[in-house]
Input
Amino acid sequence: SSEIRDLEPAAVGIAALLVPETGIVDYKLVAGRIAEIVRRSGRGEIRLDTRLTGCSRDGGELLVRTTAGELRCRQLVNCSGLQSDRIARVCGVEPRIRIVPFRGEYYRLRSESKRLVRNLLYPVPDPRFPFLGVHFTRRIDGSVEAGPNAVLALKREGYAKASFSLRDTMSALSYPGFWKLARKYWRAGLEEDLRSFSKRLFVRSLQRLVPSITEKDLVPGGAGVRAQALAPDGSLVDDFRILRRDRMIHVLNAPSPAATASIRIGELVVEELLPWLQ
Output
């Protein structure tokens, strides 16, 4: 614990692991840079605001129907995150899971409170869930995020508390796997919901890592939605789920650290495509 105080004077813990090689990035900038490389290469095209409406086989090719017209391709890779299970079904593939969205809500430390956290602070995760638990993340601009919680989102792209989609809500509530999960972990789910609406309870969870944190140290931050794959037996899929079918690869679950490992995952997908390119 004395070594913890040497590195993080405001933090407490029985023991800790130091990972000196860890790093942080602005992933929006990373994605933008990758898009720029694709465009400049002349070997790829990015179509925004385009929805997939159908997919069928036509000879040795796939006929992909979209709101921007039809496309023909020899291979298809589905990496659509929150919509990945639906895309798989449109392509005639039963994914055997359902995406249930969980919103993670964050606070930020005020500028004058950033001194309380020098590095990245993570708790020991609960092995029952594929979530990291509330933690502190120093961003590349020097700001510090605190969170997230994990609450059921009533819309797959539901980044705000008021976000709602009847279709997405019924998709979750009509899935037997969801109710098996809810019956088993209803207490943990209730605690997460309460923290979503109570800053005091959110702070209490942060104080397990940094006891001196108070409500005054925090201001509202952003939110993210996790595309969590849920199995029919109610288990939260905690590993990558990649489904291979004739000339199609469907990435159905890509949990943390998927963003960190995204380039390697892309290489793996390409390796799987190579036999079809012969």
